[in-house]
Amino acid sequence: MSNKEVKAALKSARDAIRNKEYKEALKHCKAVLKQEKNNYNAWVFIGLAAAELEQPDQAKGAYKKAIELEPNQLLAWQGLANLYEKPNQTDVKGDLADVYQKLLELYKSADKQKWCDVCNKLVELYHQEKKYLEVAETWQKLIQMKEEEGAEKAELHQLWKRMIHLLKDSTRNQDNKTEHLLLNAFEHAVNSADTIPGEDHQNLYKDFIQCLSKFPHEAARLRKACNDMMTLYPTMTYPLEVLCLHFINSGTLSEEALHCFSRIFEMDTSSGPGIIGFGIKCLQEKKYKEAVKSLTEGLQKTNQCPAAWYYLAEAQVKIHKHRNAVLSCNQALEGLGISEDPNFGWKNLALQLKAETLIKIADADAAEEAIKALEQIVGASSDPVISAIRGQAYLNKGLMDEASKISQELLSSHPDLAESHALEGYIHYSQKNYKQAERSFLNAIERKAETAEYHHYLGLTYWFMSDETKKDKGKALTQFLKAAKLDSYLGNAFFYLGNYYRDIAGDKSRARGCYKKAFELDEMDEESGTAAVDLSVELGDMDTALSILNEVTEKASPGTAKWAWLHRGLYYLRSGQPSQAVADLQAALRADPKDYDCWESLGEAYLNRGSYATALKSFRRASELNPGLMYSIYRAAALEQMLGKYENAITTYQQILKKTENYVPALKG
């Protein structure tokens, strides 16, 4: 076949392809290849025809042969791109990306528009594959090309915005280079907007700040962006709120942070981050109740703030609301999830605070939970304070050997640590080795004098050690007073001060004040409440006694606060108000249905009210629960007599006389 015939055959192949006669085209190409096996156009036409005949492998082979012959010719690369773009082509995205890269190289100087079209296709392909760095780098090249061509500011602005949109999902698995390109795109977009200030620009700025807030190491850039936005939009709270949350979550409570909290609170008193910031400020100023109130309110508005949950737990611990504090720690840990903090800072803090708080709840289940929390702390094994907490947890679980082992190790390795001596003190105290406990707590106080708990335990040690140390003003009393001064929410210190003033000093008025304070701090402390009421009655101050009882019974749910219902019921019984007495004594029995004294008192109340049949049932129930209650048995007999049940009455009187021959009321009956 001559050169002329080759050209004619190629022309026939081209015409056949134009007329969709692909098999015919293949024949012409094969004839050419017999003559010229390295004919570039023949291989390209074979690729095209084979692709249309659904023979992708043959098409791919033909195009690759053509590329091998002429690597910088466009036709084969274009054909290969078209082949890979077909919907039936799977698992070729990597190859297609390589083809697009080559086309970009070939189009760069030849055809700018086609270069841009291929660039768009390549970016879309990378985006589908979630190859965000490649997306960013390729799109950056497109913008660079447009800038070199002198594109308008508005067009460039739209291109930067498109880049932001393409990379918006990349923040989850960000690498530094992609992050840098995304933030760079935001800065260009923000600065190239047409209308500044304006609604679109405002929303773009918000997105920029939101994006920055996801990168802890971009703190300086975030602060600058927030401050710049505040300058442009002085009435908007959004940048201030983000800045507040940044300070809260980074644990930075600098002057700048406190100023930020105050500023947002002035602008919008209902702002969640503002209220949280105010709560943290209260916590710093030791206004713990206000801190709890503000942090709780702020978290209702801005729930996703793990650091704020931690601060709330801290404040709750300070006012001894331990169960609430554990729940707040759990919320903090839930919010942190898989920690993004490379130092696991917040997570470790929340786990440690949770463990310390669970130990204060002081039961075996809480101790077990504390041990589990400590196991999750990163680097816990090298921290002696955490070891001391673990020792206390073992002690609360009753695992004395494990607790003692930790104590001995700590005293050997960290003899200057207050917690080492305190743990030893707790162990001695639990074993009633008061002399040794005294030495340990004194050692702990020497190293950490401002810890209320150490003074309180030393006071308890003196209280139970002997009558001398209990009565010695310089021993138990002094330590309880120090504990109460250092921690004004430590209810148990006030309870023992009440015990001291009542039992040792004989100062009922001061004792009543201490019990009342202890009860106000912990409304679950029945002993303090009962003592405050009893002393108020002894001092003739029924108003105070009743106000305490009324407050408790108003808040009590059914089946609780037996002591308060019982005390008030007995007061009503004594003061001739039998109907109120009946209601209160019934409430007391709902809390403890087996209290025979309470049943006896209820019988008395019914009797005084004139409800004889129910009074009889109450007295019978009391004597069933305690057959030794002569008064209840006698009252039942007297009521049977009164109700005309003479035979029953006689039998009951005889039962009494069998047990107590000279029981005069029964003889009379």
From TrEMBL:
Domain of life: Eukaryota
GO cellular component, one term: Ski complex
Coiled coil stretches, renumbered: 3-39
Keyword presence, Transmembrane helix: no
GO process terms (BP): RNA catabolic process
Keywords, comma-separated and alphabetical: Coiled coil, Repeat, TPR repeat
TPR repeats: 40-73, 562-595, 596-629
Protein's UniProt name: TTC37 protein
